[in-house]
Each structure stands twice: as C-alpha cells, then as structure tokens.
Design a protein that fits this description.
Number of helices: 13
Structural class: alpha/beta
Number of strands: 12
Helix content: 40-55%
Order of helices and strands: EEEEEHEHHEEHHEHEHHHHEHEHH
Strand content: 15-25%
Shape: globular
Largest sheet: 5 strands, antiparallel
Mean pLDDT: 82
Low-confidence stretches: 1-5, 119-135, 242-248
Length: about 325
C-alpha cells in the first residue's frame, strides 16, 4: 500500500484526498460510514483495530449496537469484491477486531499474523461467557408458537420492543440460532442503521435479501428474485448480472408500488419452497419504504409460511415522531 498526496492505494482501488473510493478512475459506491471504517483500517495496514475503537471513531457520539460494524464491513467487502473466507483487503481477527491487509505482501501478511498470534498467546485471557438467556421463558415460548404458526402457513408479524439492554437482540439471536440448528426455515436478517435525511430506501431489506441469496446454496432465492422481483435485483449489485434472467424483457421502472408488489409476491412464492423468517433489527431507525413493505406484507391475505420479526425501541420512536408508532 502506498500513500501519496494523502491518497491510499491498494490493488486496483484508492481512497483519494477527498475521501472517495475509486477503482481506477471510476467511483465505487460505498456509504459514508462503511467508507470511514475502510479508511480508518487502511491508514493502519497490518494492525488489528478493535471493534470498540472503530465504533468510537466512526460513530462518535452516536449510540449504536455492535451489529452496525458487521453491516459496514459486509458493505466494504461487497464494494471491494472481497471474500470473508479468503480476504484480500479486510480480515476479521476473531473476536478482537479487523485488520487491513490490502497491499501487504505474502511475507508481510504472515509476519502480521504471527505477531498477532504471539500477542494473543502472551496476553491474559479474560472470561468470555457466551450470551445467556436468563428467564424470558414465556417470550421464548411465544416466539416458538408464532414460528410454528408461520410454518403451518399463517403469516405472522411480530415486534420485540423495549429499551436498550432489555434483551431484544438476545431473544432474537436465540430464536435464529435454534432455527439454524434445526434448518426449519430460511433466515433473512437485516439491520436498520441510523441515517440522516431521508435515508436509503429498503436498506435492511436489501441487506437481508443479499445475505439470504449468498447463503442459499440451492440458488432458489436468486432465481425467485430474478423472476418475480427484477426491480429488486437491480438494487443488489452483488447479484445483478450474475446469472441470466428468465426473460429477455428489460428491467421495469422501479416505482414504489411495483417494488412493494414484487417483493410481496417473491416472498410468498419463496415460502412455498421453504418457510422464511425475515428478521429486521432497530426499526426505530428504519426508512419509510421498509415500513411500507412491512405494512403491505401484514395486510396481505394470501397464505404464506412467513414470520416477520422486528425489533425497536418505543422511546426512540416517540421522541423522533417516527412512523413506526403508527405502523404498530
């Protein structure tokens, strides 16, 4: 990696003096917060940067969950075409943080890894208990019952509400872990991010769909989206053009009404193959388009093996006069 005139150059990419990410002379789409994370890591090549430090730097004076960092790193990898399993640019270092390895030689990467392992071996190891669910048996039983109803064909829309620290995320993670262990359903998991201005439409939905399509080895999800939700595929750069479409028709104009109808149809068709859990966290930060889709899905009367789970903080909704209050 080289730095010249405040530019950071790695592989075919560079972050210029204005803080823009470019591939050659072409701009690479990446939202400001993920770009700030990438720049923070790239300024310290080969060094493990802790999660808390990144959050404190990039999200200074803003209360966010650690999950937003995972979302940001995922966006970085999508923009760079990086592979989490065999990274070329951003490496996850266990539970400790992330390391920028773009531009490092094989020897430099090996040396950085060896040094990191040496520091970890000699450092005291604090206890890291796994998140435990204490009590909440009634809530867990309710979730299992709603999942059962969804699997039986009755769509369910459920909100987990409460203030920070009450255990919404833990409750959700336990349910999703159970589903992954049993393979009872597809899981599409998205996170709303605090945005300024109008925000990016359907941000958590697009994240959830991208993750689900990437994890589905059968290719069924991608085929369903291409056939029944072409305007959504155009919003997923990682999959746009990955496989041929089922028709030769041009992608239609993505009007809000069309996108709502396409996604509702696609999700319902997907659930004929396998039940689906659509989990959306922090809806108190949601864009309005996502709430429109939730409302549209909730009002549909056709059968669907769909469980939509959303979390939000009631106080934030009230203070911000967020439309989530009316939606509920």
């Amino acid at each position: 990696m080289t730095q010249e005139q405040q530019e950071i150059v790695f592989g075919p990419f560079r972050i210029d003096a204005r803080g823009s990410l470019l591939r050659g002379e072409d701009p690479v789409a990446l939202q400001p917060r993920p770009l700030a994370v990438l720049q923070h890591l790239a300024e310290r090549p080969g060094e493990v940067v802790g999660r808390d430090e990144i959050l404190a730097t990039v999200w200074a004076d803003t209360h966010v969950s650690k999950a937003v960092l995972k979302v940001a790193v995922r966006a970085i990898r999508e923009a760079l075409g990086d592979n989490a399993e065999a990274p070329e640019y951003v490496e996850t270092v266990g539970r400790r943080g992330y390391r920028f390895i773009g531009g490092l030689s094989t020897e430099e990467r090996a040396a950085a890894t060896a040094n990191a392992e040496k520091r970890r071996a000699t450092a005291p190891r604090p206890d890291e208990p796994r998140p435990a669910m204490v009590g909440r048996n009634d809530a867990r039983a309710d979730l299992r019952e709603w999942l059962r109803r969804a699997i039986d064909g009755s769509r369910q829309v459920v909100f987990l509400t409460g203030e920070p620290g009450i255990g919404k995320t833990t409750l959700l993670e336990h349910l999703l872990a159970d589903i992954r262990r049993t393979g009872a359903a597809w899981i599409a998991h998205g996170q709303c991010l605090e945005q300024y201005g109008e925000g990016e439409p359907y941000l958590p939905i697009l994240e959830a769909l991208g993750r689900l399509a990437a994890e589905d080895r059968t290719g069924d999800v991608l085929r369903i989206l291409r056939r029944h939700a072409p305007t959504w595929i155009a919003q997923l750069p990682a999959f746009d053009g990955a496989t041929p479409t089922d028709t030769d028709e041009a992608v239609p104009v993505a009007t809000p009404e069309r996108m709502l109808r396409e996604m509702a149809d696609a999700l319902e068709i997907a659930t004929t193959k396998r039940p689906l859990v659509l989990a959306l966290e922090d809806l108190h930060w949601s864009d309005h388009s996502t709430l429109d889709l939730i409302s549209y899905l909730a009002r549909r009367r056709t059968p669907a093996r769909l469980l939509l789970l959303g979390t939000f903080r009631p106080t934030d909704v009230i203070v911000r006069a967020h439309p989530m209050h009316q939606l509920k």
